[in-house]
Amino acid sequence: MFPRLRRQSSSPVRPLSQSIRETSIPTRNPKNDVTPQVYLGHGRALIQDGASSPVRRVNTPPPLGDSFVGSVPAEPITSPSKHAAKRQRLFQRWNTLLPTLFHAYMELMRITNNLREACGLNLESERCNCCRNARELTLKIVRFEKFESIRLWASDCRPAALQLINSGLFPCAPVYPSLAVDIRMLDFVTRLFLRISPNHTAWCGTVEDFLRCQGYRLEGKDPLRRRFGNTLQWFNSLQASCEAYVTGLLNDTRHSLRDGVEEDDSGVGKRQGTIPRSRLECSEEVESEDRDTNVDETGSRKRKRPDDHESRRTDLLSRPSDYLRSRCPICFGGEFDPEKDRLTSDVIVCLDACFTQRHNSQPRDPARQHPDSFFIPQSEVDAVESRVEEARTQAAHATKKPKTSNEQDTEDDELEDGMLVSKSVLDLCGNSFKAAREFLAKVIPKGCDVTALMALLCRHDRPLWVVNMTTPGERQHYAIALLEKLFENIPPFMHVGVLYDIGCHLERSCLKWGLLEEHMDNLVFAISVFHAFGHQWACQLIYHPRKCEGFGLSDGEGAERLWHGIQHLIAYTRIAGYHLRVYTLDMQLHFVNGENLLKMGTWAQRKYKSLCTKRAENKIELAESGKPLSLLRKEWHDQVQTQTRPLPSQSKNKGKVVVEECLRLRRSQSALEKRVKLLQDIIANPNALDYEVASAEVDLPRVLEDYNKLTDKLRRKENALGVSEKRQIHHLGKSPYVNKAMNARALKTRLCERVRSRKFELDRVERSYRKQRSERQLNEHIEDSVKRRDPGIQQLAQKYNKLVKEMKNLIVLRRAPRNAIAPAPIDVSELFKLDIADELWQDIGLDFDEVELGQTAPPPWLADDKVRQGIRAMLELDRCEEEEERLAVERKAMQSWLKEEWNVLKCTIEGTDDADVLHQLELRRKHLCRLCVLWVDALKDFEEEWDEDWGPSVEELEVAREVENSSAVEVMEYEGGDTAFEREIDPVLTEQLETVALSDEYRKSQIDFIDVDL
What we know:
This protein is α+β, with helices and mostly antiparallel strands. The chain has 35 helices and 16 strands.
C-alpha cells in the first residue's frame, strides 16, 4: 500500500523517510530535486520526504496556476542506470575495435600453426610520441601454468588489444585492460563450454586453486571471474566474425561463378588484402542477405515490394538459398529441376517447441548478435502474429452467422473444407494435446520474458531456424513464421513435408483462416511418429508418416533429440542476459550442426541398413499373407474411406430430424415417380415428335436409377424408425421413443468405431515379438496413449445403456410405436474383449443405414487377419521404397555440394594473395578433405554405381585418410645422460676431444708399462 498523502509532515506511525508534507513549488535545484506526489492549487504540492528511487529520474516542469488543480503531471522519463550506460559504452567500443583485430588474429593463427606453437611477447616498451593518448598499462596475464605481470605502452596507433593479440593474449577491456588471458586457454574453454554447461565461476576457481598450489596468486576477492567472462565473451565474437568473413569471401566467389563473371585484377585477391567495412558490419551487426525478409514491420498482410536485388534472390530463385545450403547440405545442397521427376516432398522438416528453455525477466544486456544467427528477429515474428490475428478476425466476421437452436441441435459431424478427417476427430485430437490448445498455459509466464523455444529442423536433425516464444501457450503463429521463412529461401516449385506434433490442427487452421495460402499446394502435413499414437485412429490413418505417402522412414522427432542435446544449457541460459543467451544458443547450434555434418555419412549408412532389414522382414510378411497387392490396395482404400467418414451425433430433436428426412424422401420419391411416368408416356405416344422420344429414351434409365436408389434409402430410413405405413410417420415427429432410439443409434455407431480403432492401435503391441529396449519403450508408450482414452469409450457405453433403459421404460408405459423392441445393454466390463457374441455387435432394435444394402458379412480389412497382415506389410514396403529413393537423392546431393564447395574454395585460393586468409582457406580445405573421407568410406556399401569424383584428388584423399586413421603425436626419445648438454655442444668438437682423450690414455698406458720394466 502506498502511504496516505497528508498536509502535515508529522506522523507518529510513519517513518521519517516516508512522511508527506505540503509545500510551495520551489525553483529547480539540481542538488535536491524531488518530484511532487500531488499538485495542488496556487502553486502548492504534496511531496514525500526521503523519497528515493532505484533509478535516476528527470523531472518535468510542474504545472502552474489554478487550471492544473487535480491534474497529474507527465510520467517522468527514466534514464538508464550508471551500470547499464557503462555496459553500453563498453559494447560500442568493442564493436569499433573488433574489425581492427581481424588481421592480427588470423596472422596469429598462421604464425602459431593454429596455436600449436608458442608465441612470444610483442609489446611496446616505450612511449609513442606521435599520439597524445599514449598510456602505460600494467596487466595480469592468465596462462595454464602461471600468472604473469607485464607493462606496455598503448596509444591510438598501437592499441593495447592489438599488441596483446600479437602476443597470443586477449584483453578483458577494449581500451584500458587490466587483465589478459592466453588465447590457448580461451580456445580450450570455448570448446569445453560447447560440451558442458558454461560455468565461469567453476573454471576460474579451478584455475586459481591450481595455480595457488604452485605459489601463484592474484590479489583481491574473486579477482578473475568477471574479467575472464568478459574476455571469453568478446573472444568468441572475434572468432565468429572471422569465420563469417571467410564464409562471405567464399560466397562472393560462388556468386561470381554462378553468374559467369570472371574476376579481374581488382577481384578477390585485392579485396581480401584489406577487409571491407561493409563486410565487417555485416559480420557483427547486420544479418546476412539470406536472412532478409520482405515482411512489413507494421504487421500488415501486404508485403513490401522487393528491390531488384531481393527480387533476383527470391522471386527468381532456382535453388535453395546459400543460408539453407549451409544449414543442411544434404537436404538443400543438391540440384532441383522442376522439369525432372522429383520426390513427392523435396524436403522433409519437423517442428517442435521446448518449454524448458525459458529465460527469466531482467534488464536487457547490450544487443550482441551472432553474425550467422539461427534466430528469426522478434519483429518478424510479431508481424506474422499480427497477420494471423487479422486473418482470423476477418474470417470470423465473414462467416459469422448466428445459428438457431434447431440448427445447433441437428448439427452432425462433417468434413471441413479441404480436410480428410472429420470435425469430431480433430476436436478429440485437440483435447488430447496441450499444444493444440493455444491459450492453455504450458508454463507459468510470470517472471519470464521468453517462455520457450520453437525450432524448425530438417530430417537429419539439423536446425534451420529458431524463434523465441513469449506466450505461455504454443501459439500457431510461431510455426507459421518458421514455415514462411523456409518458403522465402526455397524455389516456388519445391514441395515440403512437415512433421509436427499437431500437424492435423495446423493444417486445419491454415485452411480455415487462409494462412500460408500461397504455399498450401506445396505443403504436406503429417504427425511425428512418437506423438502420432496420442491422436485418434482416424487421424492416424491420414497423418501418420508410416501411412502417409512421401515421408519414407522419417520420424519427425529430431527436435526432441536437439532439446536433449542442449539440455545442459537450461540452467545457464535461464539466468544469463537476454542477448547473451541467444548468442550462447547460436554457438551451440553451430556446434551441433558441425558435429552432425561429420557423422552424416554414418547416418546415411545406418538408415540404409535399417531399411534393408525392414524390407526383408515385410517381404516375408507379405508373402505369408498370400494376398495380391491389387487386393490389398483396394482394401486399404476402403478401410480409410470407412474409418474416416463422419459419424452421427446425438441431439434432443434427433427423432424429429429423421422423420422430416423421411417425409422429404417420400416427396422426392413421388416427384421421381411422376417423372418416370411422364417419360414412359412420351415414349408410348405415337404422336410425339422424334426428338422428344429420343430425349425421353436417354433420360429414362438415369431417372429410373435415381428412383431405385431413393426408394432403397427411404426404406432403410423407415426401417430405422420401425414403421412402414405412411399414415404412422406423421405422428412420430414428437415421439420421445423415436428420438431416444436415434440417439442410441448414433451413440452405438460412435462406440463401435472407437472400439475398432482401439483394436487397430493395439494391433502393433499384440503382434510385437521383439525385445529391444526401444521397441519395448514404444509399445509402452502406445499402450499408455490408448488406455488413456479408455474412460471416454466406457463413458459412451454408459450413456448408451442409459438410453436403452429409458427406451424400455417408454415401452412399458406404452409410449413407444407398436411392436417396438428395445436393444440389449452393453456390459462395460467386457467391452474391450471384442467377442463376436457381444451385444456391441448385435443390431436388435436398431437398424444402421450405414451398412450397405445386401451386405451381411464384414469387410475383409476388418475381419480377415491375412488381409490386415498384408496391408501392414504393404505400407511398410512402400515407405522403405520411398526411403531408398530419398537416400539416393541425398547421396547425390552430398557429392554435388562437396564438389561445388571444393571448386569455390580452389577459385578463392587462386585469387587470394593474403597469407593470413590463405591459412584460413587451407583449414577449410583440410576440413572438406576430412568430410570427403568420412562420407566416402561410410557410403561405400550403397549398391548403385556412383561418380567417383568428389572434388579432391586421389592423393589429397589418401593424405586425409592417413591423417584421420592414424595417431598424430610427438615422439619423445630418452637415452640417458645429460641430453640438454649434448644438444648444445658442437659434435665435431666433441669428436676431436674424444680422440685427444683416447691418445692421452694410450700414452699414459705406455709410460706405465716402461716404468714397470725398469
